[in-house]
Prior knowledge:
Elements: E1 7-13, E2 18-22, H1 27-36, E3 44-47, H2 53-64, E4 68-73, E5 76-80, H3 99-107, E6 113-116, H4 130-138, E7 142-146, E8 149-153, E9 162-164, H5 170-180, E10 186-190, H6 196-207, E11 211-215, E12 219-223, E13 232-234, H7 239-251, E14 255-259, H8 268-276, E15 278-284, E16 287-292, E17 300-302, H9 314-321, E18 326-331, H10 342-348, E19 351-355, E20 374-379, E21 388-390, H11 394-406, E22 409-414, H12 416-422, H13 426-431, E23 436-441
Parallel strand pairs: 2-14, 3-13, 9-10, 17-18, 21-22
Antiparallel strand pairs: 1-22, 1-23, 3-5, 4-5, 6-8, 7-8, 10-12, 11-12, 14-16, 15-16, 18-20, 19-20
Amino acid sequence: MSNLQNYVYRIEGGQPVAGEIKCLGAKNFVTKAMIAALLGDTPTTLTNVPPIGDVDITKEMLTSIGVKVEHIADEALTIDPSTMSRSRVPTPHSGGNRIPILLLGALLHRFEQVAVPVLGGCQIGTRRVDYHLEAIQEFGATVEETSEGFVASRTGSLKGTHIKLPYPSVGATETCLYAGILAEGRTIISNAAIEPEIFELITMLRSMGAIIFTTPGREIRIEGVKRLTGTRMEVLGDRIEAASWASLACASDGDITIHGIRPDTLGNFLSYFHQVGGGVELKGANSIRFFRSGELHPAIIETDVYPGFSTDWQQPFAVLLTQANGVSVIHETVYEKRFGYLKALDALGARTQLTSHCLGGAPCRYRETSYEHSAIILGPTPFTATEYIAIPDLRAGLAYVIAAAIARGTSIVTGVDFLERGYGNIVPRLAAMDLHIERIPADAMTDARLTLVGDTNTR
Length: 459
């Protein structure tokens, strides 16, 4: 992960992208599984672990408190929590992510006081840590913010409780799961997140000995147990990455077969993909072919918590919509600052407009606010390469790569440290599908004029 900021991608676009690609393990599950492993009293083995920065950051945090973490194969990781000896998690040197706040619920079962740093992730809007902190306190702990970060303390064991989440936050649901499974008594989580990664985490915890019941209506019931053991768990394929490759296939008029992805995890994405003119062919239990089946049509998209259209799907899908015939709308209801990436697309040739109005009927937390959380996209607009595109955040990063791939000419993509935090081996995997992409030292480009067209702070 070191010195990623010293590299850029050079992409020669304008041709269909075709071939086969393996979908790596899900970023949104693997780091949560690494934390879950701390709850067992024997080692856990994770397979299909992606080679991404967030895994390195999480590994550094775990080893800093005495946990033994070893790569036993290219895509396998063993985590032994029996050597854990420290309750204060230092700030990792390899970067920041949102994982530290999740460590509170897990580590409080082992230590009476836990301290974690306050770290950020992508600047796409407010991610409310108070949901996490309030949940921890509901289990009987106290939490305060100090110069060290967040410090949580308990006297006695955590006690089961009834948590009513004000919003079905994925992270807050995970915090409640970590805290509840070893707490005394019963825990009920109302208005819980139900993303595929949440159910995968529940499956892992059940295999460790947890007693967790799911019911209709976003409710999870936990009967606390005395101990958990380690397990062996395969990381599911990354549905966000898969949707991105699908968008690339359709936007470039290419043909991509993705291996290692369960079709059921893509949910409504497949229907929207069909609606805009994409083609889908199931090639087996875990392989899907994506292509363009005809003229591209506009769409109205409203992001939402699962089973709605994922907020992490909208950036690559927006690139696809720039090539559709007509006016498309994206109404973002999850994060309030998710459209900063559109300025870079406009520089490539897109025609977009932002508004603070809710352009849709879905319930929205940002109604009657000043946040520009709806986007209008006019297409089709051919893209022409631009000198430099600066990646502002993780998910926008892959959208920029897709945009550069369909733009005629050569684009330089900077800020690849954001992208490589969540996506592994981007360059060799895309190059294998005949996309002209290379990762080169930024020093090789120092004579070029640097125009940061992707800076979210200037929109």
